[in-house]
Amino acid sequence: MWFNLDGLPVCFPYAAIYPEQHAYMGELKRALDARGHAVLEMPTGTGKTAALLSLITSYALANPSRPLRLLYCTRTVHEMEKTLAELRLLFSHLPDPSHLLAFGLSSRKNLCVHPQVSASAAVDTGCRRLTASWVREKAASDRESTTPLCDYFETFDTAAHRGDLASYISPGVCTLADLRSLGCQRRICPYFLARHLVKHANVVVYSYQYLLDPKVASIVSREMMMHKECVVVFDEAHNIDNVCIEALSVTIRKQTLEGARRNLRHISQQIDSDQLPVSTKFDMRSEPGVVRNYGRLLLEMASAVPDGIVCFFVSYSYMDGIVSSWNDMGILQGTMQHKLVFIETPAVVETTLALDNYRKACNCGRGAVFFSVARGKVAEGIDFDRHYGRLVIMFGVPFQYTLSKILRARLEYLRETFQIEEGDFLTFDALFLRRMAQPYDKAGSGQKTLLTEEDLQVMSQDGMDM
């Protein structure tokens, strides 16, 4: 039925309406008129989903000059399917829904139609093994065609390059089951098709995480929200705090910590084999025993860590000396049995070539180690994400050159104006502001290295000994 609500013609897909639904719609309309926020509550079973979808859809149709996109966030897949069913009923009562598109977006696990991958317990992992860029590059160069790929994704990619994806889906409401059926019939990946079409849809129904989890939202929701004015609805909104806590938390199992402790103990035993610790003190870091232990650490990591390892040194001269010593000790030769080794130099062309070959070695599965300088061009401007930076090793703490006249004047100003001691500023600058934070974030984790108070005290004392 149709009725007028404060001058807005509203399409409601049922023959009668509860007074609570009418009042609910009135409050929602006032929030849309004000372009503001609203917290609305209705008892269970009184039809709040139908009321909400009817009002927002009718509001969008009545205001074509103000194009609105509805992002409807649910907690579970079951709630998503119920919402899509209500949308389908509503669309069937609209006079001309031919220009409207609504569908649900869910995870690979719920949308994958690849026979083997969809039947496995780890769908995400299986999907990436067939669709990752480096896997497809390897397949392209594989003359014998032995590298397996996903035919459904290849169809999607071909259509995407032709700009032909819109032809795969018709206007109306498309449920998760509809997407899977379409994928099987047209042999196209429904997961990547849905991800691409979200920016063209009028209504998207998906999980809280697609909007609240920063990692997921930056991939799925950012572009969609930039192009149109969006109305965002959180169904069962009392769950938001728990979803946010879960999205921004990391859970580590006790077994993982115990395994890490055993590995650290084993590494410690190897490093201390000649009774000299790994130290960043200026008067110890070039000791043959310390250099050898540094090399053994690198060799141990190269044999255990896959793909790319990035090593940062405090200066070009220190890196040259360490690398030369490692060559004499046979450590470089041992490392190259596991991975190729590339080195940054002050020459831009040489460094660019080394970086390109480093990436190729990581892409083909050979693995590589890249030696760089904490204050160099690579540390300042290159991101070693994914398999290009499985591990970062920092050899030394990159304090500034303390004999610089400019630095001495700056330290004097800080001491006289803000009572900041020289050692405190140099340690803070080296560990946080400039040097240590950049290399440790080059592995693409999105998180800086966190140090305990004890770590800071030890590093600060080492800095004073320099």
Q: What is the residue-averaged pLDDT?
A: 84
Strand content: 5-15%
Largest sheet: 5 strands, parallel
What is the 3D shape?
Answer: elongated
Structural class: alpha/beta
Number of helices in the DSSP assignment: 24
Low-confidence stretches: 433-453
How many individual β-strands?
Answer: 11
Strand order of the largest sheet: 5-4-6-3-7
Helical content class: 40-55%
Rg on CA atoms, Å: 29 Å
Terminus-to-terminus distance: 81 Å
Structural topology:
Elements: E1 2-5, E2 8-11, H1 19-33, H2 48-62, E3 68-74, H3 77-92, E4 101-105, H4 108-111, H5 115-119, H6 123-131, H7 133-140, H8 151-162, E5 172-174, H9 176-186, H10 190-197, E6 203-207, H11 209-212, H12 214-220, H13 222-227, E7 229-234, H14 240-247, H15 254-271, H16 288-304, E8 308-313, H17 316-329, H18 331-335, E9 340-343, H19 348-363, E10 368-373, H20 377-381, E11 391-395, H21 405-418, H22 422-433, H23 437-440, H24 453-465
Parallel strand pairs: 3-6, 3-7, 4-5, 4-6, 8-10, 8-11, 9-10
Antiparallel strand pairs: 1-2
